[in-house]
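Study the following:
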Amino acid sequence: MDPLNGTAVFFDIGGTLASVTLSAGGDRIEDLAVYPYVPGVLAELAGRGARLGVLSDPGPIPPADVDRALEDAGLRRHLDPELVLYGRKDTPRLFAQAVERAGAADRVLFVGEDAGERARALQAGLLVAPHPRLATAVLDEQAPLRYLRVTVPLAHAGEDWRAELRDLPLLPLHVTGQGGGTVYAVGTTSAAARLDDLGFLVDRLGTEDQPLTTELYLLRDDRQVDSGFLALDGSSRDLFRTGPAARAVLASTADGLVVAVPAPESVEDYHLAASRHGHNLRLAPAVEPAGDRAGAAEAGVVGPAVTPEEKEVLDARVRPEHLAGHLARYTGTAPACGDGTVITSRHVQHPGNAAAVAALAADLERIGGGRLVVRRHVFAHEGRQLANVEAALPGTGLDGVVLVTAHLDSTGARAADHDPAVDAAPGADDDGSGLAGVLVAAEAVLALDAALDVPRRAVRFVLFNAEEHGLVGSLAYARDQALLGTPITAVLQMDMIGWDALPGRTFELHAGFRRSPTVQARSLALARTVAELVPQVSPALPAPQLYPHAGEADPADARSDHHSFQLNGYPACLVSEDLFAGPGPDAPPADMNPRYHLPTDTSIDADYAGDIARLVTAAAWVAATR
């Protein structure tokens, strides 16, 4: 290859070079874990003469602390000290300073995962790339990046074709079809031409360099699906008929619309009418496009049973009043913390989101009493630094990690003229109910651990941010765990567990993952473990509606945060209220919360939610100890 003398390359840190976790208070770097492919990329660029640097917004972290973290992670040795810049990236100013620092460089490249930052870098005159694996290709080819849809011809669908994609300047974002026959990706023109030569069917989507300043989403038009073929009742005309929005739609598929959302717009601006739970999905890289990572642990316990001692603790520690107490503090009916802060919304664009993150971290530290390691996992989204909240109980004698999860953000997007930056979005059911469920699960698992002192796997309690914007926080977290080799054996996600209006107290378990039969089978084994515990720990609940069932597709496939883990090869299932009709023609109708995504989502049935949270807690304890 030709040398890259006269080239300067700047990288963002978190989400681009490494997974970054902060202290519970958000003021200290606890871990900066470099992604495994990054050292090779940096070594290749430096070996060809490029000068390397970073552009990072450290927020409240002192720059000297970031320097130490880069040194400890082995990244500092790759960097030119003159090209390490810290500051806000919400204007082109820091990027312009980078150009000045690069001096006589004839090419300056910024590599970062956030479209807003890439747009501002372009304004300052830099080249940009959305991922380190595309950096060299952007510099060498100096050709446009395109969104590509790569389809395997039906006659060759069973062949081993994925290796060909890994060797190309191509970044897979989304795989569809049973076993994965169509890949949406970002690639160079040379990658597209090479795929043409190999016999793949390649569609060039959108315009040249559109991936530089946009993020790709799948938007599900549930109203169109319900109305059926040739019934003109979809939502596309309302949003995508004219103007800039019309240029955002790249394709119409059986799964939904593929839309490139440009910075600084938000996916919030594309809320389709009559949408059901999980109506949007951010298309982002996973560790393996096939979603069938080798070595993923088996999940599920055959014939699970809880002991009388375990049941006694569960009954005492997971009660309706416990959920109600936690819920009140995160939905604005009680102060969230001692300073009198009231959280009226947890929307990512509202100040209440950061307040909720801080309150959750403090709550989990208080609950843990020094036994939980509480951290913030940070990621960028729509020009903001957001955080997931993680509390880890270290393992004692058994290998593997069990996750109990929910999402912490909320939205009121279905309300007319809703302003997410200022208006209330209490999200009591979606997903304050799951959030409260995770907190009581943490209290109960700690009590079980103290009372029984048995060998167990590590247990993590994780609250994900930006779920309402397409599973963004869980996608970042799950990808990072897979890249770092975390041996996750089970993920139990609670998303909307508090609404029950129709008779029967019905609820659902979702394990479907049509892209990989292996991952689906592991997830289904986990869901069956949950189902078998119902009569033992929550006998007021009926048997769950378990998906997939008798050949029916799972309607919640890719609609909640459990999907992010399945994408990366981990077994995961969703526990929810009765969101969907079925399974089977004789099943009761859906019992969907009519206040979904409205400011009126202010209350839950705490008895019902408590039964579900107790069930999930029992399943997590069984998965951790058997």
